[in-house]
Amino acid sequence: MILPQRGDVYVKCGADILLNGLKTDLEAEAQCPVCGYVTRFHTVKRRVEDLAPKDPMLHVVEFGMGAGHVGVECESTHIFDKKDCLTKWLSTYTGKRGLVISLPEYMASLSQRLPTKYHEREHHSNTTQLGSRVLDDRKASHDQL
Ligand SMILES: [Zn+2]
Description:
This protein is 29% helix and 28% strand. The protein contains four helices and ten strands, in the order ββαβββββββαβαα. It has helices at 14-21, 83-92, 103-113, 132-144, and strands spanning 2-3, 7-8, 26-31, 38-44, 47-52, 57-60, 62-64, 70-72, 78-80, 99-102. The protein is of the alpha+beta class and 145 residues long. It has two domains: 2-114, Beta-Lactamase (2-Layer Sandwich), CATH 3.30.450.410; 118-145, no CATH class. Strand 1 (2-3) and strand 2 (7-8) form a beta hairpin. The structure holds zinc ion.
Protein backbone atom coordinates (compact mmCIF):
# COMPACT_ATOMS: atom_id res chain seq x y z
CA MET A 1 0.00 0.00 0.00
CA ILE A 2 1.09 3.60 -0.49
CA LEU A 3 0.62 6.00 2.40
CA PRO A 4 0.56 9.73 1.78
CA GLN A 5 3.31 10.46 4.33
CA ARG A 6 5.43 7.33 4.24
CA GLY A 7 5.34 6.11 0.65
CA ASP A 8 5.37 2.38 -0.11
CA VAL A 9 4.68 0.14 2.84
CA TYR A 10 4.43 -3.64 2.68
CA VAL A 11 1.75 -5.22 4.78
CA LYS A 12 1.13 -8.85 5.59
CA CYS A 13 -2.32 -9.21 4.13
CA GLY A 14 -5.30 -7.61 2.50
CA ALA A 15 -7.14 -7.03 5.75
CA ASP A 16 -4.15 -5.04 7.01
CA ILE A 17 -4.59 -2.67 4.10
CA LEU A 18 -8.24 -2.17 4.95
CA LEU A 19 -7.49 -1.67 8.65
CA ASN A 20 -4.97 1.01 7.72
CA GLY A 21 -7.51 2.44 5.31
CA LEU A 22 -9.76 3.18 8.26
CA LYS A 23 -7.17 5.61 9.58
CA THR A 24 -5.93 7.25 6.44
CA ASP A 25 -6.60 7.44 2.72
CA LEU A 26 -4.24 5.18 0.80
CA GLU A 27 -3.54 3.42 -2.47
CA ALA A 28 -3.20 -0.34 -2.38
CA GLU A 29 -2.18 -3.27 -4.53
CA ALA A 30 -2.79 -6.88 -3.61
CA GLN A 31 -1.54 -9.88 -5.53
CA CYS A 32 -3.90 -12.81 -5.94
CA PRO A 33 -2.29 -15.86 -4.27
CA VAL A 34 -3.72 -18.15 -6.98
CA CYS A 35 -3.08 -16.49 -10.35
CA GLY A 36 -0.81 -13.59 -9.37
CA TYR A 37 -3.06 -10.95 -10.88
CA VAL A 38 -2.91 -7.64 -9.02
CA THR A 39 -6.02 -6.02 -7.57
CA ARG A 40 -5.74 -2.26 -7.13
CA PHE A 41 -7.88 0.13 -5.14
CA HIS A 42 -7.91 3.31 -3.11
CA THR A 43 -9.45 3.93 0.26
CA VAL A 44 -11.10 7.30 0.56
CA LYS A 45 -12.84 8.33 3.77
CA ARG A 46 -13.12 4.75 5.02
CA ARG A 47 -14.55 3.54 1.73
CA VAL A 48 -13.06 1.37 -1.00
CA GLU A 49 -12.88 3.25 -4.31
CA ASP A 50 -11.54 2.66 -7.83
CA LEU A 51 -11.50 -1.12 -7.55
CA ALA A 52 -9.84 -2.86 -10.47
CA PRO A 53 -10.90 -5.54 -11.32
CA LYS A 54 -14.44 -4.70 -10.25
CA ASP A 55 -15.33 -7.55 -7.93
CA PRO A 56 -12.42 -9.11 -6.10
CA MET A 57 -13.27 -11.31 -3.10
CA LEU A 58 -11.72 -11.30 0.34
CA HIS A 59 -11.31 -14.36 2.51
CA VAL A 60 -10.67 -13.17 6.05
CA VAL A 61 -10.19 -15.04 9.33
CA GLU A 62 -10.79 -12.81 12.32
CA PHE A 63 -10.10 -13.43 15.96
CA GLY A 64 -11.80 -11.65 18.80
CA MET A 65 -9.89 -8.88 20.52
CA GLY A 66 -12.65 -7.26 22.51
CA ALA A 67 -14.82 -4.30 21.69
CA GLY A 68 -13.30 -1.69 19.43
CA HIS A 69 -10.57 -4.01 18.10
CA VAL A 70 -10.44 -6.40 15.17
CA GLY A 71 -7.61 -8.89 14.75
CA VAL A 72 -7.04 -10.84 11.54
CA GLU A 73 -5.08 -14.00 10.91
CA CYS A 74 -2.94 -12.93 8.00
CA GLU A 75 -1.85 -16.37 6.74
CA SER A 76 -5.52 -17.14 6.06
CA THR A 77 -6.54 -13.73 4.78
CA HIS A 78 -6.17 -12.92 1.09
CA ILE A 79 -7.60 -10.73 -1.62
CA PHE A 80 -8.54 -12.70 -4.75
CA ASP A 81 -8.98 -10.86 -8.03
CA LYS A 82 -11.95 -13.04 -8.95
CA LYS A 83 -14.31 -15.55 -7.41
CA ASP A 84 -12.89 -18.46 -9.46
CA CYS A 85 -9.52 -17.99 -7.78
CA LEU A 86 -11.12 -17.97 -4.35
CA THR A 87 -13.03 -21.17 -5.11
CA LYS A 88 -9.85 -22.83 -6.36
CA TRP A 89 -7.89 -21.75 -3.29
CA LEU A 90 -10.63 -22.88 -0.87
CA SER A 91 -10.64 -26.34 -2.45
CA THR A 92 -7.14 -26.99 -1.08
CA TYR A 93 -7.30 -24.79 2.01
CA THR A 94 -7.37 -26.70 5.28
CA GLY A 95 -7.12 -23.84 7.77
CA LYS A 96 -9.84 -22.12 9.68
CA ARG A 97 -12.81 -21.09 7.53
CA GLY A 98 -13.20 -17.37 7.40
CA LEU A 99 -15.59 -14.86 6.04
CA VAL A 100 -15.98 -14.52 2.26
CA ILE A 101 -16.93 -10.95 1.47
CA SER A 102 -16.35 -8.19 -1.07
CA LEU A 103 -13.84 -5.47 -0.23
CA PRO A 104 -16.35 -2.61 0.04
CA GLU A 105 -18.56 -4.74 2.29
CA TYR A 106 -15.70 -5.69 4.59
CA MET A 107 -14.55 -2.09 4.78
CA ALA A 108 -18.08 -1.04 5.75
CA SER A 109 -18.21 -3.75 8.40
CA LEU A 110 -14.85 -2.68 9.87
CA SER A 111 -15.90 0.93 9.80
CA GLN A 112 -19.05 0.10 11.78
CA ARG A 113 -17.20 -1.92 14.42
CA LEU A 114 -14.18 0.29 15.00
CA PRO A 115 -14.27 3.72 16.57
CA THR A 116 -13.57 6.68 14.37
CA LYS A 117 -9.88 7.53 14.22
CA TYR A 118 -9.80 8.72 10.67
CA HIS A 119 -7.90 11.96 10.14
CA GLU A 120 -9.54 14.01 7.52
CA ARG A 121 -7.23 16.22 5.55
CA GLU A 122 -9.76 17.65 3.12
CA HIS A 123 -12.15 19.37 5.47
CA HIS A 124 -13.91 21.23 2.71
CA SER A 125 -14.60 18.17 0.56
CA ASN A 126 -17.96 16.55 -0.06
CA THR A 127 -19.21 14.94 3.12
CA THR A 128 -22.94 15.31 2.53
CA GLN A 129 -23.52 11.56 2.50
CA LEU A 130 -22.26 11.17 6.05
CA GLY A 131 -24.61 11.33 9.02
CA SER A 132 -24.15 14.24 11.40
CA ARG A 133 -23.35 11.87 14.32
CA VAL A 134 -20.28 10.61 12.48
CA LEU A 135 -19.14 14.14 11.83
CA ASP A 136 -19.60 15.01 15.52
CA ASP A 137 -17.53 11.96 16.54
CA ARG A 138 -14.79 13.04 14.18
CA LYS A 139 -14.81 16.54 15.53
CA ALA A 140 -14.63 15.17 19.08
CA SER A 141 -11.62 13.00 18.31
CA HIS A 142 -9.86 15.93 16.68
CA ASP A 143 -10.48 18.08 19.73
CA GLN A 144 -8.84 15.51 21.98
CA LEU A 145 -5.61 15.53 19.99
ZN1 LIG B 1 -6.52 -14.80 -9.20
